[in-house]
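Service request form, structural biology core

Requester: graduate student, group of Dr. S.
Request type: structure prediction, single chain
Budget code: on file
Notes: please return the result as structure tokens.

Sequence provided:
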Amino acid sequence: MAIIGLLNDIDETIVSSERIQQGLAYLKSVNMTDMFEKVTEEEPLKIELDGDKLFAIFQKYQSKERENILFEAHRKYIDIQLVNKGEEEIWVAPLSTKLDETEYDSDKDIHFMKASYHSISLMKPQNAAILFPTDLHAPGISVVKPEAIEKVVVKVAVK
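Core staff response, request fulfilled:
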């Protein structure tokens, strides 16, 4: 089940995973201005926090229109997504609602699909979402029209 809310309101004690707690603590302590100065749309920035078990990806992109939206899911990692700049919608659905699944890419830990239904959350600066392998998610969707987004995704290894 996805957890969505303001970063400072997500209580680290509700999540028993030490790595998720480390990821949340990192997001609360990192200087976002300094990190995003090093990022372009073409060049995201990856910061290893604990090798391939815990790392952050700082990215800039344009939010996308609501047409032909595909949900993504991961098997090896939990996502902690934090919007730093801009507003976007994130669509979330249970894995059990998946339709028309593409082949899983184990190198990128991703597969895409449609969902029979979903919920929508508005993500503004300092809004975070913790997305588990059982959560289909479609982030980066325009609220009104495409706009510039700055986002950090902390990848937390499941095992």
